[in-house]
Design a protein that fits this description.
With 292 residues, this protein is an alpha/beta fold. Helix content is 33%, strand content 25%. The chain has a single domain (7-291), classed as Spore Coat Polysaccharide Biosynthesis Protein SpsA, Chain A.
């Protein structure tokens, strides 16, 4: 197993039913937050952490994601002819030249564990990251995945990005019980997928950021359908921690649950208030709206 994390898996095959009809023909990961789609925020976080291979696990209606990260010859030519140099640079620099994009089809949406398992041939014997674009994490200092990569470099084992949630919301998350080892780190002793509040081992939720050793693929092969009738990544991690250390890491930064309509709206407003081009006018508009 190599020491550096250079590959990241983006499971993007979900149907996005909570955002219908907006996602009837458009992937939920392509929903814009101000002027960038959710998946671009996730990719930028990965690139900032040193990722060089982006593995997208896609579904039948996700062509727009592939197109977004591909070269757009006609658009680039038109922008060049019109002298829109800055806009041209903006779309040309979404993916640096040294970064490779790999697209793998998940024919059936059989769960997050199944999606991650589809990346096995590309990942090989390397530790790798998994990023769920639904969770937009804003940390302007370093980035959530960058923080987790540093933890992996020190400990050389799987790392789960976690956040303390309202105990009433445990049925929406994988929940861990950890023994603290300092510096926002804990050794995971138990992980359960979407437990009822009265059965949850804690209120520490895994929120869409993982670094996993390649041993996870062996465990995914053993997992049978669990919660929701799907192959759960949580169940494979539960098997993994019986053989290897798995750490929980309470990252710095603010998470927006863009898998929910309210979380998506909050992310749009707060990112708008940070946008260099828009923030002053947008802030003035919101203040005026409140005063009406």
């Amino acid at each position: 197993m190599k020491n550096a994390i250079k590959k990241a898996v983006f499971p993007v095959a979900g149907m996005g039913t909570r955002f219908l009809p907006a996602t009837k023909a458009n992937p939920k990961e392509m929903l814009p937050v101000v002027d960038k789609p959710l998946i671009q925020y996730a990719v930028e976080e990965a690139l900032a952490a040193g990722i060089e291979v982006l593995v997208f696990i896609t579904g039948s209606n996700k062509r727009a994601i592939e197109d977004h990260f591909d070269k757009a010859y006609e658009l680039e030519n038109e922008l060049e002819l019109r002298g829109k140099t800055e806009t041209l640079k903006l779309i040309q620099n979404i993916i640096p030249p040294h970064v490779t994009c790999v697209h793998i089809r998940q024919a059936e949406a059989l769960g997050l564990g199944h999606a991650v398992g589809r990346a096995k041939a590309v990942i090989g014997d390397e530790a790798f990251a998994v990023i769920l674009a639904d969770d937009l994490i804003d940390d302007q200092a370093s980035g959530c995945l960058s923080q987790m990569v540093q933890v992996f470099k020190e400990w050389q084992c799987s790392v789960l990005g976690v956040e303390r949630i309202d105990p009433t919301e445990t049925q929406s998350y994988g929940i861990v019980r950890s023994n603290s080892i300092g510096n926002n780190l804990g050794r995971v002793e138990e992980i359960v997928e979407k437990p009822k509040p009265e059965k949850a081992p804690s209120n520490l939720a895994v929120v869409g950021r993982y670094i996993l050793t390649p041993k996870i693929f062996d465990k995914l092969d053993l997992v049978t359908p669990g919660a929701g009738g799907e192959i759960q990544l949580t169940d494979a991690i539960a098997l993994l921690l019986k053989e290897q250390a798995v750490l929980s890491y309470e990252f710095s930064g603010k998470r927006y649950d863009c898998g929910s309509k309210l979380g998506y709206l909050i992310a749009t407003v707060e990112q708008g208030l940070q946008h260099e081009e828009l923030k002053e006018e947008f802030k003035a508009y919101l203040q005026g709206l409140i005063l009406e």
